[in-house]
Amino acid sequence: MSNDRNTIVAHVSYTINEPLYEKSSFSEVSPAEFPRIKTQYSKDLIVIYNRIPKTGSTSFINVAYDLCRTNSFNVIHLNITKNSHFMSLADQSRFVHNVSHWVTKKPALYHGHVGFINFQKFGAPQPVFINILREPLDRLVSYYYFLRYGDNYRPHLIRKKHGNKVTFDECVKQKKPDCHPDNMWLQIPFLCGQSAFCWIPGNEWALQEAKRNLIKEYLLVGVTDQISSFISVLETVLPQFFTGATEHFSSSKKNYLRKTNKKIQPSEETIIQIKKSLIWQMENELYEFALQQFQFVKNQMKVNENGTLSDKGIQFKFEKIYPK
């Protein structure tokens, strides 16, 4: 597949107005040799980024906002009452219907802090899902201090734990609820979905369902410390939205938005204690699973001299085509 948009992966329609070749016989045809195939981007393409808090999601989604006018797509934020991460069955139905039928806002990228929603369950086509995961303890520590000190994205906003000077280490020693391992139970339910069992900390079924969804329902799941690579892969497989994203992210001052103003790294003693918990072990299992899959995807890409990733070009061809 090439970067000149002659070929794309997701939601492609092909229009063939005349025979590919006038010659009567051939044994091999490369897709790159199809001069009379016209590729049209789908006007109905929907991408859903059910973003997980404190995973670098603000930095990523701002790339989409910056490129949406140039690349002719819409970006829409999903705001759920009381910051809930799941919806009632009725709201799921309404959301699926609205997203599927809001023709004037297609193509679109929707983003919001919500668990995975199965559109097919409501008789609608499944959108393209993407996400980003972060090492679970890093995410928890970042969120812990974010609630106390805020970030550089909205520095004047007073967070709900403002003024609380208790460090994460002290919190763990005092066994306070803000640092309880159960607070790490977030990435599993976000990929697991809207089932009650997804949101029960330590539920083994939820972990396995999250893994299954990651492979079968998500086009791509990246990791926080490799967001630039995540963007490069998306530019290759979803050029309709992300053409120019790699260059924009690398050159933009927005590539590290929402950095927590003050964050104290936990002690080795605290790290050891947290990693003994079942919740960390399960969340980390999902993270390592996602990391392995993302690395597999990256290995199929070309590494450029500047370290960025790009498509290798079409690596398949059609042959033995009959009748001639």
From TrEMBL:
Any coiled-coil regions, as ranges: none
GO CC aspect terms: Golgi membrane
Keywords: Disulfide bond, Glycoprotein, Golgi apparatus, Membrane, Signal-anchor, Transferase, Transmembrane, Transmembrane helix
InterPro entries tied to this protein: Heparan_SO4_2-O-STrfase, P-loop_NTPase, Sulfotransferase
Locations listed in the record: Golgi apparatus membrane
Family statement: Belongs to the sulfotransferase 3 family.
Protein name, entry field: Heparin sulfate O-sulfotransferase
Organism whose genome encodes this protein: Parthenolecanium corni
